[in-house]
Hints:
Blueprint: E1 6-10, H1 15-27, E2 32-37, E3 57-61, H2 67-77, E4 81-84, H3 91-96, H4 98-119, E5 128-134, H5 158-177, E6 181-186, E7 188-190, H6 199-208, E8 213-216, E9 222-227, H7 228-241, E10 246-250, E11 255-257, H8 258-272, E12 284-287, H9 302-308, H10 316-329, H11 331-338, H12 341-350
Parallel strand pairs: 1-2, 1-4, 2-3, 4-5, 5-6, 6-10, 7-9, 8-12
Antiparallel strand pairs: 9-11
Helix pairs in contact: 1-7, 2-4, 4-5, 6-8, 6-10, 8-10
Residues 11, 13-17, 37-40, 42-43, 63-65, 85-89, 104, 108, 132-134, 163, 186, 188-189, 195 line the site of nicotinamide-adenine-dinucleotide.
Amino acid sequence: RSENKRILITGGAGFIGSHVARLFVNKYSEYNIFNLDALTYAGNLENLKDIEKSKNYTFLKADINDAESIDRLFDEYKFDRVIHLAAESHVDRSITDPLAFVKTNVIGTLNLLNAAKKAWKEDVKDKLFYHISTDEVYGSLGQTGFFTETTAYDPNSPYSASKASSDHFVRAYGETYGLPYIISNCSNNYGPNQFPEKLIPLFIHNIMNNKDLPVYGDGKYTRDWLYVKDHVEAIDLAFHKGEINETYNIGGFNEWQNIDLINMLCQIMDKKLDRKAGESAKLITYVKDRPGHDKRYAIDASKINKELGWEPSVTFKQGLEKTIDWYLENEIWLDNVTRGTYKDYYSEQYHSC
Ligand code: NAD
């Protein structure tokens, strides 16, 4: 599929999107990469400083909720392929403002699908709408079992309901209008450039600043964690070698109960910050649970492993070390993103706990 050269990445100023944009810009000089992002609180062009001057990279500030702009950009730039990551991505925010999630994640995705359908109607050969989604669409697991690509959707939070809906629309556009698509559903990502409202960067940031570490419920929620660069390698593979109209589950084969993960994080941070062993763990504070909190997610990633040869390249400990080092070396980035509106959100989110 290398003859297609005009690739639209949506949400490329966010956490995962910026790593996708960097890999595609650096690895495929023959592609023109267009990064479309509305720069919400989660989008940050600082994430892309190293590639912003690259010849094959263009930033387009636009909102996927604005159908007219999206149509116009498809007309003007003639994208052949889309990697769609733009989304409202934080579960807690979806509980306080579900409509924002329907707007961007559902309607925004529809706007992109409609634009692609119109632009590609003459010839869908070698076109692709690659939709990036989450394992949260499958709902919650008991103590055993894994999500596979055929697990029924059973979303529990407004975030996962909006992502599930967008997945269904992508598949429906494939079936109804013949739009070539791929969907991948990935487990929890962590790594550099993640906005510090998500568990791992939030806790790194709080440990650095001697602030409480708010642990939901009994701390026994279980998640599968994947280093962001391993997710991006999987996206690269699925984009180039995946079967059209297929879904791939991506996961780290790496399940952790929150409290065990947090204790490991505290131990590594104690060493990095020259603190006494056990010092950071003293900051752990149990807080009121998140409503509708899914107990356990676990991905069976054997399809992408067997069919495309993908597997994670780093262990959890290695990935966490790299992540912590990045946050310790990028305090200015952290200061910038935690200023202003984020502070209000943070105190609103945790003040009643
Ligand atoms: P993020 O919140 O860090 O970034 C989202 C980006 O989308 C930001 O740059 C933001 O400015 C942009 N955006 C938001 N609304 C927009 C709009 N209306 N128009 C244009 N741009 C808009 O999110 P992330 O964690 O990087 O997640 C990226 C994608 O991957 C999402 O679709 C998410 O559902 C999916 N995903 C995330 C994870 C995870 O653990 N973070 C796991 C699996 C799947």
